[in-house]
């Protein structure tokens, strides 16, 4: 690619992933100042450099840019931190480019981000919860966080579809894993709740790598303690509102029933998308609807775009806090076979993108991606999808700007 931007156009963030028409003074023809020593690779989107970890490149003359966008564009082109953000005034963390650092080099963190012992000073943090003691069928989700981190090396810095540039907007790092107790599920829930209380206490938004879906219950205990009852956008094959199994009230089929019991959810602002599969009762969704949940069966999603649905969901959620919980079995097992309780005829990855991108503009206070069991998918595709979905969640967090 001869130039870093050919041609440069204004790309203002406008849901869902489309851009407004460029302003006349931004619709620039190719100019000498667009050329740089940057050498790009089509395999890495042409945004890297062969020279250094933080490449330098020329940016448009200041008089050609509106004042409100000048600093951001300069920062994006030069891989420099955005000068303003919420958590602290230090430099922002930036994933390295594969054009300078081989993907297999370094500690296996989410997107090769720095690893911190705490969430102090962060706007958002990736957190692993390697627990699968609550599974009811095939175990293996305890290895989900590790496999998601491994596949996340393929995820780059900017979202070329939506224009989101999260790492130029907010400070993000990987804070490692919660030290769960594999021999005691209730003790694990206590440990998870306490770990997340510390994260949300410093105004950091957690993005969780699961782990089975049991973990969402203690996470929401911590989140609701700070924000009050939250709305929920739940992508899943199952409602996870069972009451008991084998006499136990806590496992991956009951997290949202326990959340209802404890008043953690704003039930009028709960939507469950992609629900399907056989059941033990003629009307398996009665409890959910009685609480005020909106249940969207997978059949209602077949062969259509979910953009109209998400327009309704945004109105339903309003400006109050919202949590996103994404069970990877919400996708059809043709796309994501690496999970413990797969169900046929699920969502497609593109529909999942429409759901997550449709959450842009909501007051999101936390997200999780659960139930990745890599042992059932030797290709790594399930974990790869999970890593990309977590990146998409990061891109719709409040405070993330668009290039």
UniProtKB/TrEMBL annotation:
GO function terms (MF aspect): agmatinase activity; guanidinobutyrase activity; metal ion binding
Annotated InterPro entries: Agmatinase-rel, Ureohydrolase, Ureohydrolase_dom_sf, Ureohydrolase_Mn_BS
Cofactor: Mn(2+)
Domain of life: Eukaryota
Keywords: Hydrolase, Manganese, Metal-binding
Pfam families: Arginase
Sequence segments annotated as region (Disordered): 31-53
PROSITE patterns found in the cross-reference section: ARGINASE_1, ARGINASE_2
Transmembrane segments: none
GO biological process: putrescine biosynthetic process from arginine, via agmatine
Quaternary structure, from the entry: Homotrimer.
Family the entry assigns: Belongs to the arginase family. Agmatinase subfamily.
PANTHER family from the UniProt entry: ARGINASE/AGMATINASE, GUANIDINO ACID HYDROLASE, MITOCHONDRIAL
The protein's name: Agmatinase, mitochondrial isoform X2
UniProt organism field: Microcaecilia unicolor
Gene: AGMAT
